[in-house]
Every structure is written in C-alpha cells, then in structure tokens.
Amino acid sequence: MADFLIVITTVDTHDAARKLSRSAVEAALAASGQVSGPIETTYRHLGEVAEGTEYQVTFRTTGDRREALEQHLVDAHPYDSPEVIAFGIDAGRARYLEWIHRATR
Fold this sequence. Notes:
Layout: E1 4-11, H1 14-26, E2 32-45, E3 48-62, H2 66-76, E4 85-88, H3 94-103
Antiparallel strand pairs: 1-3, 1-4, 2-3
C-alpha cells in the first residue's frame, strides 16, 4: 500500500458531497476533500443502463488511514454500494506530503 493516497467517491447531491468531505476531514481520516461537479454519469444498475448527475469527492489521505476512511464513507454514504476507490500518490513535494501526514493524525 502506498504511503499517500487519493480516494474518490461519488454521491447524488452537492449537500451529501460536502457532508462527506467535511466529516472525513473533521475525523482526521483525510487531510482534505474536494467536491467536483455536477458531473454526468452513465452506469449499469440492476441490468439497466441509466444516466444521472453526481458529485465527486476526492480525498487526500495516508495509507494507514485508508481502511478507516473507507469505512467512514460507506457508513455515511447515501448509496447502498458506493464507489470508494484509492490511487497511490507516486510522487509529490515533501512538504505537501508531510502536511497530509500531519493533518491525518
């Protein structure tokens, strides 16, 4: 597992995205959360192709906080089976990465 991660989820309203972002940062599970959107989504659900509008929340966190952040997002998420995916940060300014570490303690 990477030492630093980008974790992404999507929700159906701007308010839900803001709440997830804030609650994760307040719990020190993420150093930051950025809300983007609205974005248009096409997806398959229950055998049908559907379209909708969502908001994406992008978090910066540490590898040792990933599982707790994921559980927090799943518990607080409005969807039954939410997307929660993580990508390792391969490189970054040392001072920025140190900030992520400090902010998640």
